[in-house]
Amino acid sequence: MSPPIARSRRGFWLRLVPTALAVCYLPLADQPGNPVDGWAWAFGLGAAALFAFGRRIPLTMVLCLAALLVVCDRIGTHADVVVILATFAALIDLALQRDRRWIAVGAIAAGVGLFANFVDVPLEPLQPPFFFVVTGVIASLLGAPILLGLHLKAARLATAQAQQRAIELEQRRESEKAMVRATERTAIARELHDIVVHHVASIVLRVGVARHLDPDADPETAAALDDVHATGTAALADLRRLVAVLRDPATIEEEAHAPLLDPADLPDLLHQAVARSRNAGLSLDARVDPTVARLDAVRGLALLRVVQEGLTNVLKHAGPRASATVTVEATADGAVRIHIADDGPAAAQRPPQGGHGLLGLRERIDLLGGRFDAGPAASGWRVQAVLPAAVTPAPLAAGSA
User: Which GO terms describe its cellular component (predicted)?
Assistant: First the structure.
């Protein structure tokens, strides 16, 4: 239950206090010589109902209760205690919701009602000392609920101002964070475009020139050059899309990689990665579950990067003549298991790794709540990863706040 709803329900029960007083007090006030008649019940429950449902009309409520005080005094019922309590509570509402002018009007009306109820007028002229004493008592009685209402009003205003300042501060912080992120993304995009994209474009151009200058090259060399050209062209297209995403302010609060992968294309992208490794001379047995096309973009990209980095490491460290297996399967609970193994030289015979590929994969999988493991196997090297099932938010229960 949210705090506003809790406060609303708590306020509703507090408005039933005069009703509870009427129900409890009037039977106790019933005496043999001075019975509680129907007028007492009508005025008592009427005043309680007026306070319970008159929150939106505080001035009208105070005026009606003041009139009830006069009527109760003229008729002589036992309901005056309930009406007086409801009047004091109504003055708190009036001080909370209205300005000083209407508070003064309500206080005067309530004062007249209390004066008529406390003093039998105009049976005899009031002596000045008695008049001032009664007036002071009534003013004190009326001042207490009004001051309480003004205090609650000031407290609410201070709380609202504090909340507004907190919201503005949080918005300012988010704006500053967005500005910093935008600056960083722009700097990264600039470096990618000016350095990485330039070099990759140069590689693609030079490979294309080499292929054109040697049209009679043996089939293996021609296939290798074609594969390098195709891979470089695809990398260049991805880099340009990434630069465009990094420079787009609309994607600052989104994952930068979301537009770079359509999950429906994931099986084909995995098969392309496998095909490139085979073209490089790697003997590769690959099994890819086609249901991975139903993955979301974030998990799909993580899966693709694990397979790409794993095969790159096989080519780098096990050699193009090694044998390897790639298995990508979806489990019944929606998770995805990835297993890449090769029969290359033992880990101790492999050169030390100076890159951050495996570290980046581990961080990517950890962010998704999965498991990642890479290390030597009985023969060669293995990479294992588990992508967890997507978390679906639980629906709110009916009637919950």
Answer: membrane
pLDDT at 130: 60
> Helix, strand, or coil here: 72?
helix
Cα–Cα distances (Å) from 278 to 154, 323, 332, 365, in that order, read 76, 10, 30, 26
Report the domain count for the chain. Answer: 2
In a domain, 281, yes or no: yes
Q: Decide if 216 is inside a domain.
A: no
Q: Which sign does the torsion angle of CA 126, 131, 134, 138 carry?
A: positive
Domain-ending residue, one of 99, 124, 149: 124
- Identify the domain containing residue 53 by its residue range: 3-124
User: pLDDT (tens digit, 9 = 90+) per residue, 79-122?
Assistant: 778 888 888 888 888 998 888 899 999 889 888 888 877 765 55
**What CA–CA distance (Å, rounded) separates 305 from 296?**
14
Q: Are 342 and 308 in contact (CB under 8 A)?
A: no
**Structure-block tokens of residue 66:** 């003041």
pTM assigned to the model: 0.46
The C-alpha atoms of residue 106 and residue 118 are separated, in whole angstroms, by 18
